[in-house]
Amino acid sequence: MPRTAYVNGRYVPHRQAAVHIEDRGYQFADGVYEVVPVFGGTLVDEELHLDRLERSLRELRIAMPMSRQALKMISAEVMRRNGLTNGLVYMQVTRGVAPRDHKFPKTPVKPAVVMTVRQTKPVSQEILDNGIKVVSRPDIRWQRRDIKSTSLLPNCLAKQEAHEAGAYEAWLVEPDGTVTEGTSTNAWIVTKDNKLVTRSATNSILNGITRISLLKVAAAEGIEFEERPFTLEEALEAREAFTTASSIYLLPVTEIDGKPIGNGHPGILSQKLRQAYIERVAKPGAFQAEAAA
Ligand code: PDD
Fold first, then answer.
1. 190 by DSSP, 3-state: which?
2. What is the pTM of this model?
3. Is pLDDT above 60 for 285?
4. Is 121 labeled as catalytic in the residue annotation?
């Protein structure tokens, strides 16, 4: 089936999908995006992703390009045209096309909207059995990481360094030694006294939708958790570690900077949470009902 993308009001063959050279997203990374998982034909946590999209746009003073209902209709149509039942929907909204000038256009232009979908392969058994390696890198990003901006150069650089070091992800570390998050994932540890810890949702991190839902799963499972910063040192001494994102759900981290975490195998709590999360994802509507509650 040939791939189809949505670009500014039109469904076009993916190969020919293009935006204008003076799109501010292209020139200034002046835009935001969302990656929404699709499981069994249903968008997982769609409302939460749209809430975050609206918030990111508001923070950058970009108008919502259309109603939520219209965005939902387009994502459903792109999925339908691509025959997607399991994978990811990518949506991007930029401030629009205007002659290059750092200031916003004087007369507001129409925000540009792009939507694509991608089929994803299930996580390999090798990764599920052995977990992933992580390296630490300095966090050199700006101070508004809560905005899901398309400005991802520091993330790309650190991810590439991780890849070149034979690792799956880089966890980013502040000058004070605390871990903020991964380049495209949120970071978690399980302490020696079995407490689940992840950084609180301030401007220092992107408040992952998987993060939000996993905290609900943990609460439902009666697992104690703390939202607070943790240091790289604490992570190296943790019983377990894992990392979460829409694209991977939850992957156990078994090595950081070449040192084994816990016994060097995926942790019991990490595996339990991954399972519990996937079971709830597989129940369409479960998250939406909670989002509305
Ligand atoms: N990344 N932190 C960062 C910096 C991210 O880019 C992401 C998501 C997350 C996890 O958020 P969520 O659970 O909502 O996916 C945390 C997406 C998947 C990406 O850029 O491809």
1. strand
2. 0.96
3. no
4. no
